[in-house]
Amino acid sequence: MNALPAAPVHPQPDAVLISEVGPRDGLQSVQATMPTAHKLLWIDALVAAGLREIEVGSFVPARLLPQMADVAEVVRHALTHSGVTVMALAPNLRGAQAAIAAGVHKVTLPVSASAAHSLANVRKTREAMVDEVRAVAQWRRDMAPGVLVEVGLSTAFGCTLQGQVSEDEVLWLAAQCAEAGADEVGLSDTTGMANPAQVRRLFTHLQAELGTRAGAAHMHNTRGLGLANCLAAYDVGVRTFDASLGGLGGCPYAPGASGNVVTEDLVFMFEAMGIATGVNLDRLMAARQPLQAGLPGEPIYGMTPEAGLPKGWAHGAPSR
């Protein structure tokens, strides 16, 4: 039923894995719909830059997100690239079944730490979403055991609808998702409310609770703390980071939630520190061209593309 999965990507102890989420998180957050041909060229450019995990879309009804109507075709194209983990978001069992039928290597389920955001985003309670995780994990186990199931805990650091989100509830919900069968549970700063001290504390507790099943950091730059929060997560052992080319994205069901951490800036920060990402910055910045061609007039961001690489920078890393 499913294409053979890509080999799991496990960063070296000091290296990091950058998971590009722009083709999903970015494109579903803008009004315009990028033509399919441009999506495919954009994914080709991301792969050429060295990105090895890409979230290429969402398996949701086209009437809700017309930007994702071509997601199965996009998945099939992404699968032509060897060595790339192709992932997609699915809000329920039906979506996960469609994603796995299309051939994805990993399915991400959105579970909200905020009760208010859960109802706004997926129209289900948090408990009902844990049941969805359980159903997806069980179906996967029986029908497509090679596929990974990941949960990204949205609004883990605060919610524009609800306000403060209890850290105890975040950890409780993470444990519930892991018990339900999720292979990994990461934390998402959906509304850009996190600060570095909070990030260190919550990821430290998450790792103590889940061990190796503690997953990625998905940070937003709404208040300018995206990179600082990623570094805080790295300091306590996180090695997988979601990011979006040009900072494209947000959440349509969380008012005031602006863009994701800029992939170009995140890669530059880590590479400048001597932390390997496997991504070539020149090629990564070149990948902005098909993005802009497919969404003409859409603003994109990034301090590194604006300033350029420092003198002496060569082959994707500074000269030593």
CATH class descriptor name: Alpha Beta
> Taking all residues together, what is the mean pLDDT?
90
Instruction: Write the CATH fold name.
Output: TIM Barrel
How would a crystallographer describe the biggest sheet? 8 strands, parallel, barrel
Q: Tell me what portion of residues adopts beta-strand conformation.
A: 5-15%
Encode the helix/strand succession as letters.
EHHEHEHEHHEHEHEHEHHHHEE
How many E strands? Answer: 10
The rounded distance between the terminal residues' Cα atoms is: 48 Å
- The CATH homologous superfamily is called Aldolase class I
In total, the number of domains comes to: 1
Portion in helices? 40-55%
Shape: globular
- Based on CA atoms alone, the radius of gyration comes out at 18 Å
Strand order of the largest sheet: 1-2-3-4-5-6-7-8
CATH architecture: Alpha-Beta Barrel
Low-confidence segments: 1-11, 253-257, 316-320
Relevant terms:
single chain, two-stranded antiparallel sheet, 320 residues, disordered N terminus, disordered C terminus, alpha/beta
Structure description:
Helix 4 links the parallel strand 3 and strand 4. The strands form 2 sheets. Strands 1-2-3-4-5-6-7-8 form an 8-stranded parallel β-barrel, surrounded by 7 helices. It is globular, with a radius of gyration of 18 Å. Helix content is 40%, strand content 15%. The protein has one domain: Aldolase class I (TIM Barrel, Alpha-Beta Barrel), CATH 3.20.20.70. The longest helix is centred in the middle third of the chain and has 18 residues. Helix 6 packs parallel to helix 7. The chain has 320 residues and is an alpha/beta fold. The N terminus and C terminus are likely disordered.
